[in-house]
Amino acid sequence: MAFMGSAALGALWELFKERISGYEITVTADAQAENTLTVTVARAAQACFGIVTIPPDNTTDTATIPSGFRPTAEYAITGEDFSIDTGGIVSINSADSEERRLAFFYFTDNDVPDAAYAKGVKDNELTD
Q1: Domain at 104, CATH number
Q2: How far apart are CA 12 and CA 4, in angstroms?
Q3: How far apart are CA 51 and CA 23, in angstroms?
Q4: What is the pLDDT of residue 98?
Q5: What does the pLDDT look like over 68-97, one tens digit per residue?
Q6: 48 falls within a domain
Q7: What are the two backbone dihedrals, phi and then psi, of residue 9, each rounded to the nearest 5 degrees?
Q8: Once rounded to an integer, what is the mean pLDDT over residues 110-118?
Q9: Where are the strands (E) in the chain, listed by range?
Q10: CA-CA distance, 77 to 106, in Å (whole number)?
Q11: Mean per-residue pLDDT, 47-59
């Protein structure tokens, strides 16, 4: 099976999260704004797989991944297009005239994410 481009990345994402995702989050730089940095992360055991959507001509947005989804020090990402540090800060490193959707994979620590992020959990099902 060959995959190319943004549509293929979306298809791979759906295959991955249906198979092994135990927890899933989506964070944005500004939920009220259009064309903002968006990060979606799925976690199974201590492995995280995600997609960063970087809007066109944007180098200023940052988003924060919550505890339980952050990379350990040896897996922090510093790439040409974006970075994810151990504090969960996702930042854009380069601008482009078109939107970019980029995949990433890393390992996280033993912290278990909050139950609110569990796959299929509804807000009214959560208990203290």
Answers
A1: 2.60.40
A2: 10
A3: 14
A4: 92
A5: 889 999 999 999 999 999 999 999 999 899
A6: yes
A7: -60, -40
A8: 71
A9: 23-28, 38-44, 47-54, 62-64, 77-78, 82-84, 89-92, 100-107
A10: 8
A11: 89
Residue 127: pLDDT above 50?
Answer: no
Residue 128 lies in a domain: no
AA letter at 19: R
Residues 6 or more apart whose CB falls under 8 angstroms from that of 35 comprise 55, 56, 58, 99
Residue with tokens 């960063």: 52
Token reading at 101: 């959707």
> Domain limits at 97?
23-112
Find the distance separating the first CA and the last CA of the chain, reported in whole Å. 45
pLDDT at 97: 92
Domain count, the chain: 1
Write the CB contacts of 1 (distance below 8 Å, at least 6 apart in sequence): none
Among 34, 41, 43, 83, CA closest to 65: 41
